[in-house]
Amino acid sequence: MASDPLRVGVIGLGFGQYHVRGYQACPGVVVETICSRTAATAQRVAKDYGIAETQTDYRAVLDRGDIDAVSICTPVNLHRQMVMEALEAGKHVLCEKPLGLNAGEAKDMLESARRSGKVHMTNFGWRFNGPAFRMKSLLDEGYIGRVYHLNARYMMGYRASPRKAHSWRERRLEAGLGAMGDLGVHLIDMTRWWAGEFERVCALMHTLIPERRAPDSSAMRESELEDACAFLAQMQGGVQAVFHVSRCALYTDFIHIDIHGSDGALHFQFVRDTMQASLKGGQGLRGNLQPLSVPSRQGALSPQRHFVEAIRSGVEADPSFHEGYCVQQVADAITTSEEQQTWVSLS
Question: How far apart are CA 57 and CA 82, in angstroms?
Fold first, then answer.
């Protein structure tokens, strides 16, 4: 019944705390239990958010028959196993991005989710941002005419200090990707949502800080993943695209995306200092870009609310695991391009 409370569990309490807040803002949703591999972390978060139960074993969450849905917010190498077990336990699943270590894992999760009949969703949160949603609407309406080319940058400095300790985000078997997994997959999803499918890519990856201190000693450990990635893409309809992501870019912390077409241009910007996104646009051959209004949206304003509404209505969530799989295919092609130093086509 729609009036019954929806009971959820959150597994992984790094970014998982955003999921807790998102669920607690949804009417008729109860975060029943949370799980972290360390009891102290789980107890601290439970106290902060008023959650009665904590676990250190994710299977204890999945074994609860009264839990309807789970968010999986763990390191990427744990996603596939946890997602598959959650679906087998009859749970709806919202999984953090990137969906898997590679497209093969993502495809396994997508196929299992479809067989289960449960709601499945990848947490590409920018789809629920007002200016980003308005950008999508304007492009669909033909505001800039035929899309010619786009330029997208996601630049941050959270790993710029060499003093930052080594973590799972530097280990290939746990994270799969570095800056591309943290930031780049968001740009792939946003631009694919706005402008269509990727057809081929050519990439250059760079590990800017090759070693970091181990968190529990003075020993140095190799950083196995990229801190920055620049890549070119040809997208659906011949759209030319240029991308650049970095987690070692000082004095930045922004997203800038420009899309130009036959009749005008659009500019999306997010600045972390203000936590505000904005949209500018212009039509015609001359003039300056002007701020565009962003109408208030009806319905879901967060990934968690959309996930909950999809469960209650029985419709497919968007972005589902399908979008997670498609983004992973592009990310795999980017990795292959770096390895082979050539253009890679996506079939």
Answer: 11
**Are the beta carbons of 234 and 142 closer than 8 angstroms?**
no
**Residue 43 and residue 260: Cα distance in Å, rounded?**
50
Q: pTM of the full predicted structure?
A: 0.96
Q: pLDDT per residue over 297-309, tens digit each?
A: 755 579 999 999 9
Residue corresponding to tokens 């902060």? 48
Q: How far apart are CA 296 and CA 318, in angstroms?
A: 20
Distance, in Å, from the CA atom of 176 to the CA atom of 168, rounded to the nearest integer, reads 10
User: 104: Cβ–Cβ under 8 A, 6 or more apart, which residues?
Assistant: none
- Could you give the domains of the chain? 6-125+301-319 (3.40.50.720), 126-294+329-345 (3.30.360.10)
- DSSP, res 180: I
DSSP class of residue 100 equals S
> Hey, how many other C-beta atoms are within 10 angstroms of the C-beta on 124?
24
CB of 123 closer than 8 Å to CB of 12:
no
Alpha carbon of 152 to those of 90, 116, 250, 324: distances in Å? Answer: 39, 36, 18, 19
Q: What are the tokens at 187? A: 């740009």
The two counts, helices (H) then strands (E), for the chain are: 11, 17
The residues, ordered by sequence, that sit 6+ positions from 142 with a Cβ below 8 Å of its Cβ are 263
Residue 10 and residue 19 in contact, taking contact as beta carbons nearer than 8 Å: yes
Task: Please enumerate in sequence order all residues whose Cβ is within 8 A of that of 205, keeping only pairs 6 or more positions apart, or say none.
Answer: 178, 180, 226, 228, 229, 334, 335, 338
Q: Which residues contact 159 (CB under 8 A, 6 or more apart)?
A: 169, 209, 227, 247, 248
The string of pLDDT tens digits covering residues 224-239 is: 999 999 999 999 999 9
Q: How far apart are CA 125 and CA 186, in angstroms?
A: 8
Classify residue 241 by its DSSP letter. E
The pLDDT of 236-248, averaged and rounded, is 98
